[in-house]
Specification:
Dihydrodipicolinate Reductase, domain 2, 15 strands, Rossmann fold, 7-stranded parallel β-sheet, 6-stranded mixed β-sheet, single chain
Length: about 350
């Protein structure tokens, strides 16, 4: 039944991030889930039977009745959200874009591809215009491929973006990443309980490269990465959701703590981005308590779309240091992809769809 909403397909719909897409899209004012795709193990079954639901509650009743289709089959929805692993995304995502689909991907396969926007809407919403070049060079008249960042880079970028006015010179990051970042069932319990694992495959490299692309400048043709050096060490900790990062930063200027906190408090992104349905009222929220942010208590600030920051203090090596926290499967994954799609809809990149 036509209700004026844009039909949406989800690739990798039975996985943890696919489930988060379904949860966040329930009652979305612009988009409606119409198609679900997954592997042979799930294809042909109603979603309520195919998915081992790992989030609170259960799948929405309407979506639960949708029959899961085989990944690689024909997609009719104009908007596609991809929760695919990198190996599957490499082939399928550009194929769908070439067919005229708008593909918003959480996969890492094309994040650093020069003509693919790597969007964190409040930070670099202007990078969406890179799609004009993408379409021209690839011959995609209506299709497009847009990526969102690694879930650990997200709180780093969101808190550094307001500090660009002071000149970001050097950054060092140590992460404490939730186990949900490894997908379901994730890290084996014998490895994770009573333990911290000082290695998350690929994330240090992603943090050191994706951050610079998102904080870079777009001149109408290409993105010039931010001229900054970043070092990162990533760890996995026994927390369900919420990636906590400790950031040390050297700034060219010497702002006071009050000036830094004011920069965070005033940060909104463009008015266009701030008006999107998924955008939090405050993208960066500073917490006054001496022992915050904490994953269990603060990951759902702004419905999971805000970044909590706290413990700003002097760093004897680089000048300043602080903690930042984001919900890794909402703001760091499905929520950002949905917000990116909202921005594309507002900008007119989704053919024949204009949101209210």
């Amino acid at each position: 039944m036509d209700n004026g909403k844009l039909p949406v397909a989800i690739l990798g719909a039975t996985g943890a991030v696919g489930q988060r897409f379904i949860q966040l899209l329930e009652d979305h004012p612009w988009f409606e889930v119409r198609e679900l795709f997954a592997s042979e193990r799930s294809a042909g079954k109603p979603y309520r039977e195919a998915a081992n639901w790992v989030l609170d509650g259960g799948p929405p009743s309407r979506v639960g009745e949708l029959v899961v289709q085989l990944l690689g089959g024909a997609v009719s929805s104009p908007l596609v959200f991809s929760a695919l692993p990198k190996e599957a995304a490499v082939e399928l995502e550009p194929k769908l874009a070439a067919q005229g689909k708008i593909v918003c991907t959480n996969a890492s396969a094309y994040r650093m591809t020069p003509d693919v926007p790597l969007l964190l809407a409040e930070v670099n919403g202007d990078h969406v215009a890179l799609l004009d070049r993408q379409r021209a060079t690839r011959g995609w008249s209506t299709g497009a491929l847009i990526a969102n960042s690694n879930c650990t880079a997200m709180p780093v970028v969101m808190t550094l973006a307001p500090l660009r006015q002071f000149g970001v010179k050097r950054v060092h990051v140590v992460s404490q990443q939730a186990i949900s970042g490894a997908g379901y069932p994730g890290v084996p319990s014998m490895d994770m309980i009573d333990n911290v694992i000082p290695y998350v495959s690929g994330d240090e490299e992603k943090l050191e490269t994706e951050t610079l692309k998102m904080l870079g400048t777009f001149d109408g043709e290409q993105i010039t990465p931010l001229d900054t050096r970043i070092g990162a060490s990533c760890t996995r900790v026994p927390v369900l959701d919420g990636h906590l990062v400790h950031v040390s930063v050297e700034l060219e200027e010497r702002p006071t703590h009050a000036q830094i906190r004011e920069a965070w408090a005033c940060f909104r992104g463009s008015p266009e981005v701030a008006s999107l349905p998924s955008s939090p009222a405050l993208p960066v929220v500073y917490l006054e308590q001496h022992d915050r942010p904490q994953p269990r208590r603060d990951r759902m600030i702004g419905a999971g779309m805000a970044t909590a920051v706290g413990r700003l203090r002097d760093c004897p090596l680089l000048g300043y240091k602080y903690f930042a926290l984001s919900h890794n499967t909402i703001r760091g994954a499905a929520g950002s992809s949905i917000q990116n799609a909202e921005l594309l809809a507002r900008r007119g990149y989704i053919d024949s769809f204009r949101p209210n």
